[in-house]
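Practice problem: Curli production assembly/transport component CsgG
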Amino acid sequence: MNTKTAIAIVCSTAFLFTGCGAFFNQPYKLQDARIGELSSKTQILRDMPLPHEQVVVGVYNFKDQTGQYKAIENGSTFSTAVSQGATTMLIQALEDSNWFIPIERENLSNLLNERNIIRSTRDEFQKRTNSPQPALPPLLYAGVLLEGGVVSYDSNVITGGAGARYFGAGGSTQYREDRISIYLRAVSTSNGKILKTVYVSKTILSQAIDASLFRYVNFQRLLEAETGFTKNEPVQLAMKDAIEKAVEALIIEGIEAGLWTSKEGGETNKKLMDAYNTEKELEEATLVHNRKQTPLKYNNAFIFNAFSPILNADLAQKTLGLGGSIAYSKVVSPHANISLDLGYLYVTGGDSFNREYMSSSLNLELNILPYDKLAPFIYGGGGYIFDIHNREGQNTDKIVSPKLQFGAGLNAYVSDHVDFRVFAESNFTTTDVLDNVVHGKRDDYYYNFGAALKYKFGQKKKNAVLKE
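Answer key — structure tokens:
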């Protein structure tokens, strides 16, 4: 085996094994039954502070409302996409939280039949022995009913992968994400009022990794190797995780609404609500494909620009100059700003030419993705450029010229008050003497390439709601 082949095998193996814990835990033998796995939210529920008083709740049917069948490559099967045991999972989550006393309602007819059998048996025994029998204790009744269910299961919300192959050696990885959504609501049995509704979604990840080698290593000697694995997140565990998160949310939102309270009250309630509201604000600012969003909180901004102008005129040499400007920007809508700026430009054309200018501009800026942390923008408008100083021996005619400009850039969110941005713009004037040379019919124009800091300030918006 030559050196290239050995390197290819090592690279393929490293590519496959990096971060692939499942590869080293392959099932080689039968496994005994085991206690069910915990989800990431199970321990959180178990660690919740104790309530002041447990709430008796009834769950008649927390079911699959999607009607979704399991998808396969060529269609679907008659197997449902999600587990039909959501009621049992919800009851388990209620028990784990220690905030609720769940009572049997899913199979209430079975319970009532069994109680009737007990009564009949006791009556028969009493008739035969002539000894009185104790009455059955009354059934618990629920003060709150929990309703809802699995409302959606979306397959292939996002798919993708990557791969590489070189001289017959290579590997690839693929992934797929599904999404499950549930609603859970608490209903008062005394008046039928819906006390609180919560909504939770959970993604379900599937991954496939493989590596292969196909190579002639010698005359009539072929080396062929292939390995890989696929890992699918169990739908049942994903649903359990979502249900437990819904129970946690219901407890804390119930505390916030004054429906119930923790045993310690005051400070404990506040800690729970503060942590939950911080998490909720972050989650509500995140779109479906994990796109982080930043609400627009301020209406005004100062923008400090630093740039290098390049004069595109009649001079043969086109060199970078220096410049800067300060602008005031006003938010018109989430997608549009109006800005007014005043700038300074020191333009050059090799060693033989330099000149200083001032410029003023009024621009309309369009924000393509206003709530994203990394967002492109475009802008355009008009203004003036005028010279402020000439070197000795150069043309001393004063220049004042209208101009039009347009540009594009990328804005990066740093904090609530500060953004960082880079941009490039083109400025078209109505004069041919920016470089002290009149030649041809075309007017002079110049480019600006630069970066900026945007400081946002002013009255904080009350309703910075994301509408993407």
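Discussion: The two ends are 57 Å apart (CA to CA). Students who identified this feature from the tokens alone can consider the problem solved.
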